């Protein structure tokens, strides 16, 4: 498992990984995407009960 985590962290430090992280931050700054994420979290939490 640690090999997988190491590969992911290496990727996130790479230029392409940094681009994806920045794109994710820009997308999550949009209110409509925040609402979608809240709805998904609500659905997932209600399934656990």
Automatic annotation (TrEMBL):
<protein>
    <submittedName>
        <fullName>Uncharacterized protein</fullName>
    </submittedName>
</protein>
<feature type="compositionally biased region" description="Basic and acidic residues">
    <location>
        <begin position="22"/>
        <end position="35"/>
    </location>
</feature>
<feature type="region of interest" description="Disordered">
    <location>
        <begin position="19"/>
        <end position="49"/>
    </location>
</feature>
């Amino acid at each position: 498992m640690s090999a997988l985590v190491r590969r992911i962290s290496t990727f996130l430090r790479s230029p392409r990984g940094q681009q994806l992280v920045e794109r994710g931050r820009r997308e999550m700054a949009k209110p409509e995407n925040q609402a979608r994420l809240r709805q998904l979290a609500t659905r997932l939490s209600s399934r656990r009960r």
